[in-house]
Please model this.
Amino acid sequence: MLCNAAIIIAVILGVVSCENELTPLGSNFLGEDPENIIKEAEFDVKTYSAPVNPVQTNNFPSMPFGFYEDPVYGNSTYSFVSELNLGFQNPDIGFNVELVDIKIDIPYFSTVISQSSTDQTIYELDSLYGNQSIQIELYRSNYFLNSFDPDNISETAVYYSNFDNEIENNLGELLYSDNDFLPSPLEEVVTEDNIVNGMSVTDTIERLSPRYRRSFSDVETERWKEIFFVTDPATGEITDIRSELANNNIFRDYFRGVYFKVNGVTGAGNLVHLNLNEASIIVTIQSDSIDVNDFDEDGQTDDFIANPQSDIRFNFNGARVGFINNEFTPEALANIAASNDPLNGAENTFLKGGAGSVAVVELFGQATNDVDGESPILTNVIQNQWIINEAYIDFYVNLPVDDQGENEPERIIIYDYDTNTLLSDYVITNALTDPLLANLSHLGRLERITNDDGSVDIKYRIRLTQHLNDILAGNIQNNRLGIAVSQNVSLIGNNEVLNQGGSTIEPNIIPLSAAISHEGTVIHGNLSPILSKRPKLKVFYSETTN
Model:
């Protein structure tokens, strides 16, 4: 059963297979070692691809949005739908209400680089891919997103990356459009115009981190105004707030969500992760009211306040679902299908985040049908009572096939493919740890190595030292492993994969960090024509007995 991502601490997937042949690299390979000398052994590893069907997306901690052009796999478009929640239920708007402004405010994920003496802050966006604008549209959604499974209310509802067809079939009116959406790393400066000594002065009210912050046009404002307020049909003036804003349950049924849709792309476009947990629609009004909270601090709560401005916020922290529309090239689809060969392995293995592809492995070769169901190679190693000092596999990027070069994903993750758990080598890190620096001793970052002839090797080194010791000690089974692309190896949790009746090799669960990832790569498999690039399990061990 899939564990909820909020409480789960083991997750993930992998794909790496080990072949049968044991190759000794030193003398006395399985002999007596009275001086406890560190010895070295190498095992073939069989790898093959496993295509991933539409993935669960309603538990994403951030929301990918935009367009990504992958040079190997093709194009992917990311959209989403999100509920709105009342920031303050049944708000009192006073009387003589005037609508000043309605704006959208969605922060990006960013890092502070420097701050000047003038309080200007320089930021860098953490998750922007591509630098060309795209066209976006926001529609009202008429589809009600359940928080719980309607067939079993004790279970959380699961929505998949192909659910956009259902939203498209229940589409409401267009609420907003932008023909030039391109995230900027600049801080957002909020200003206010005031009159000082008879002169107009612009004051800085607030400095905000980079975000998408836009006021709606007059036409768009009128659409939102009809959603939130009761108006006089003759004058269009606001007379009251709508009764549907009394509480969140009523409001969510009345206004079922906003559909963020990518409608057009220029060139390579852009993809960014949005921080919906801090996003909002901000409605600014000016009205007359009674000072029941004594805001003017005059000791009276029944006096009249004329024309104060106030904000009504609608948050994006309700149910939401991300959509992934892949347009993979025919060549990419054919390559993934051809490399899905559990019997022989493959020349290349294909890794693509989201509804893409992962890779799979059986360490120490296939098990036999004898009593213990264990592979002969593994039995031999166990009988010799090895102590594993270090074990790793180098996975080489196939540059002739994958020409991404500098755009290769920096991290990949390995997991137990059969139990959907992390390996014992994984260390749970602080959530604030830089994703590029987390778990480096286990999940090596992408390495670029320049050879003597000027050629470049690109590889990932995955260490499995504790995992192998646990296998040899009988603490765990020698299960298949899985490998997937991950933008953030610190992000732990499981995501379901939609069962479409395909191959039994296709995963039904993948790591959350793989589901939310958009990048792709190609790595050499066990049938690679370049023998030095084939994945090998390298083991450095000591023997305790003959």
Q: What stands out?
A: Helices lie at 164-168, 218-228, 248-254, 330-338, 376-383, 465-472, 512-515. The CA atoms of residues 84 and 316 lie 5 Å apart.
